[in-house]
């Protein structure tokens, strides 16, 4: 902390990581280390500054996914950092407690940089989250789980070739949780909070536990849910997060896994989009004596409370054929303009048979309906990314941050990174 500002240093860097696969260590990229990056943490109301340096051989950017901040600090494609150069974004955190993350966003090269390992978690706290009795001791009973799928060649290097029939991009056959294949966590408490982040370029996971036991879903992208949702599965498409609380008995072992997700595609498309795949991701090993932890409270955060009657405009976005509304990303074209601190109704439809998702910068949203139906309890909190199955229409209420800038845009895009890189991205300004 310098003069009341919380300062972080991030150095984008190349290195090698030994994942225990193949003949040599894998050439990887990360922040402050060779793979992934440190967890950053700040409190609502706190001014933050991040001193970023780029020690990579190519330009990068660092985007704060899920943060509400001025467009100049967003780290999108317009905030490029040349090799050897630095960037010092600063803003004041003013949004509910949430599990957010950071990753590069250079136009056309996001998949390549993120899947080399450039991703980290950014946890936000507030007085509500601190007052709730949820497991919150970082590294003990509050654990980040950053999930990436990778494929390796015989030499141990990442293999990037994608299946020619893949509608979504590269899918790996090995799952890395926090950079480890087949890892485990030693559990010392009766309850454990896992902050799940899908940092994979194209894979959708249906996370659950090995014996199908229920857990409490307590948070999604933009913060805590109004109330915990007891379930045995949570779906995360690329970019989405979930906070779950798992209960364990002394001495038991249970695996966090992913079962074949129903992507809503036809079986052929689903197969090449990872819809048949199942993985063990992280084993939880409970000690013989577990420290007591209170039950998850019945109420968590307030309801987002966005009202369709407050929407000042309706916009429609059609995701199809690597375009949105038949447009592809053009760096110097702004596609939409909205007004700061207002709410709009956005209708997101898909029509090309491929899985997609929707992510918006500089805003958060709630899901009103999917194909005319109210969504389930897992979609009752703040979101910034949501899965869009083929031939569906999802209506969301988007609330734009109070950060106007007529000159610098925010992004709307599909977070399947190959789609994004190929141009399934538009730009909007907040006026
Ligand atoms: Cu996770 Cu536009 O980004
Ligand atoms: Cu983002
Ligand atoms: Cu897409």
UniProtKB/TrEMBL annotation:
Q: Name one GO molecular function term.
A: copper ion binding
Covered part of the full sequence, start to end and full length, is 49 to 479 of 517
Keywords associated with the record: Metal-binding, Oxidoreductase, Signal
Tell whether Oxidoreductase is among the UniProt keywords. Answer: yes
Q: Which family does it belong to?
A: Belongs to the multicopper oxidase family.
Residue ranges of every copy of the Plastocyanin-like domain listed in the record: 24-127, 319-431
Q: What is this protein called?
A: FtsP/CotA-like multicopper oxidase with cupredoxin domain
Record flagged with keyword Isomerase: no
- Its source organism is Actinomycetospora cinnamomea
């Amino acid at each position: 902390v310098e003069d009341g500002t919380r300062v972080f240093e991030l150095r984008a860097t190349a290195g090698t990581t030994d994942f225990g696969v193949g003949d040599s260590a894998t050439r990887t990229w990360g922040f402050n280390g060779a793979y992934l990056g440190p967890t950053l943490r700040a409190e609502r109301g706190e001014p933050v500054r991040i001193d970023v340096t780029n020690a990579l051989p190519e330009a990068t950017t660092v985007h704060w996914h899920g943060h509400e901040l001025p467009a100049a600090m967003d780290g999108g494609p317009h905030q490029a950092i040349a090799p050897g150069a630095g960037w010092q974004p600063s803003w004041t955190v003013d949004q509910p407690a949430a599990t957010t993350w950071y990753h590069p966003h250079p136009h056309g090269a996001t998949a390549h940089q993120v899947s080399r390992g450039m991703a980290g978690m950014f946890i936000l706290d507030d007085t509500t989250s601190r007052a709730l009795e949820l497991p919150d001791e970082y590294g003990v009973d509050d654990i980040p789980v950053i999930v990436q799928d990778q494929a390796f060649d015989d030499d141990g290097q990442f293999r990037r070739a994608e299946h020619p029939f893949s509608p979504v991009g590269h899918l790996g056959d090995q799952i890395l949780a926090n950079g480890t294949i087949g890892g485990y966590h030693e559990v010392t408490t009766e309850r454990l909070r896992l902050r799940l982040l899908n940092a994979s370029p194209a894979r959708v996971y249906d996370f659950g536990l090995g014996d199908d036991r229920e857990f409490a879903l307590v948070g999604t992208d933009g913060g805590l849910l109004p109330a915990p949702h007891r379930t045995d599965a949570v779906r995360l498409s690329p970019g989405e997060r979930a906070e779950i609380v798992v209960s364990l008995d002394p001495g038991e072992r249970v695996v966090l896994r992913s079962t074949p997700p129903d992507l809503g595609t036809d079986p052929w498309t689903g197969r090449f989009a990872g819809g048949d795949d199942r993985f063990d991701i992280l084993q939880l090993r409970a000690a013989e004596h577990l420290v007591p932890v209170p039950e998850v409270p019945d109420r968590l955060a307030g309801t987002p409370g966005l009202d369709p009657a407050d929407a000042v405009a309706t916009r429609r976005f059609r995701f199809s054929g690597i375009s949105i509304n038949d447009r592809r990303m053009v760096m110097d074209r702004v596609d939409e303009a909205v007004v700061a601190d207002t709410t709009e109704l956005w209708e997101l439809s898909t029509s090309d048979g491929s899985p997609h998702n929707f992510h918006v910068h500089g805003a958060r949203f709630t899901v009103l309906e999917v194909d005319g139906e109210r969504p389930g309890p897992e979609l009752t909190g703040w979101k910034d990314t949501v899965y869009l199955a083929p031939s569906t229409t999802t209506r969301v209420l988007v609330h734009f941050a109070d950060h106007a800038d007529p000159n610098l845009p925010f992004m709307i895009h599909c977070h399947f990174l190959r789609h994004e890189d190929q141009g399934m991205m538009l730009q909007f300004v907040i006026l």
